[in-house]
# Entry
Amino acid sequence: GAVVSQHPSWVICKSGTSVKIECRSLDFQATTMFWYRQFPKQSLMLMATSNEGSKATYEQGVEKDKFLINHASLTLSTLTVTSAHPEDSSFYICSASRRVDRVRRETQYFGPGTRLLVL
Amino acid sequence: KQEVTQIPAALSVPEGENLVLNCSFTDSAIYNLQWFRQDPGKGLTSLLLIQSSQREQTSGRLNASLDKSSGRSTLYIAASQPGDSATYLCAVSAGAQKLVFGQGTRLTINP
# Structure
């Protein structure tokens, strides 16, 4: 259980186009979803946190108009990179949070990632 | 601002050796600490999660310890195997489920 999928797994696009990445929790309802970005040989950096039905909370330095997040349901969140440029090329990973016990502790389950290359 | 540092950045050892990966964090007010494994071009696999009230967690050949007061954690891998080769990431949670990751340690186990 607790599987998170991402689609597509990789995408190549021309500069100026928009790219949508989907993140789905396959067998559980996620209270919260997170989007991370990872540049080559660097660690994951949190971009934004989203809850179903509400606006995403973006980390400092992340442009909300550039990276549009839609959390349409408890099992689906999408990240749209608008007007992508080569510097947006990166590995994007989502995670979904699930309550694991009565004490309200939650753990994050990570998707396999989406590699974006903007030419 | 929480900062997480992992040492060493890369490690190469012969198969069969026991090894230790280190993680340090600047703010001891954490909710929990996790160790993840990441294979090249892949997502993350959670290995061990230590709650702030715990001192260690074990899973098979892996043992993770946490010393919150000193801001340190170690991941001990016993009897290393070539299949253990991967990047190991340490992450701390300071509430609101936000994870702050270290840069990772790239581990290579040589047959």
Summary: The interface with chain B takes residues 6, 32, 34, 42-46, 49, 91, 93, 95, 97, 105-113, 115 of chain A (CB under 8 Å).
